[in-house]
Amino acid sequence: MRFMLRNLTNLAQFSVRRSARNMSTLPDVHHLPQLHSTLEQAKRFAAYRAVDENLDYLNHRVIGVGSGSTVIYVAERLGQYLLDPKYAVHASQFVCIPTGFQSKGLILTNGLRLGTIEQHPSLDIVFDGADEVDVNLQLIKGGGGCLFQEKLVSTSAAKFVVVADYRKRSPKYLGTNWVKGVPIEVVPTSYIRVLSDLKTKLKCKNAVLRQGAPAKAGPVVTDNCNFIIDADFGEIEHPEILHRDIKMLVGVVETGLFIDNASKAYFGNPDGSVDLRV
């Protein structure tokens, strides 16, 4: 059996090497055709630099691919490693773990191997976006509705790298730039109770059940078949305390406050520069 597996592995690597003869080198992001907006350019600058500076292609095998508009370019960059003869053999061994339905599609579209968190509960590295990043690398995530799976994957990794555009960089506190509230995933039957507790016990300014309109009548339903509440607390000076207090409420599955999780964050700017926060 070991002999057969070894032969299959060797055959796969030979196939990659043979096809690599017609491959192209890893493109320089500044030499690619421009995208339709400077904002999308900024996202791509951040994603490409984050992957290039943090992906250890010789040793990393299990890679988390997050959700959101910036992660589109993370998956794109990872896929380009498959097309470069220098990296192709190693890149063909990457197993990519998604954080939701969207990222599954990104992984497959870019020719990467799809895995699951059940198969690979320990990851080497995760690349994901954020709705806001404060000066201490605390995050608000969940604007896209994937916060539980994003947190499951990011906290299962040895390294979590945030990729975002310049709008997501808070000058100090969370809740400064992102004013839609902290996303909170809740069990559907509990949402009335949680809405009440957020207002009476935690004194949030406002809390609403996220709706799916105009694409869907009724509330947003997560990939885990739960509801999402968006709770506005204004500027959040102590997100670790708020996260703990929200988690204590009956019915709460997870919060969109990611505490002491990220190791660094890349922010793309329209002029092509990328700012790093560590």
TrEMBL record:
One of its GO terms (cellular component) is cytoplasm. Pathway: Carbohydrate degradation; pentose phosphate pathway; D-ribose 5-phosphate from D-ribulose 5-phosphate (non-oxidative stage): step 1/1. GO terms for molecular function: ribose-5-phosphate isomerase activity. One of its GO terms (biological process) is pentose-phosphate shunt, non-oxidative branch. It catalyses: aldehydo-D-ribose 5-phosphate = D-ribulose 5-phosphate. Keywords: Isomerase. CDD domains: RPI_A. It is an enzyme of class 5 (isomerase). InterPro entries: NagB/RpiA_transferase-like, Ribose5P_isomerase_type_A. Its EC number is 5.3.1.6. It comes from the Eukaryota. Belongs to the ribose 5-phosphate isomerase family. This is Ribose-5-phosphate isomerase. It comes from Lachancea dasiensis.
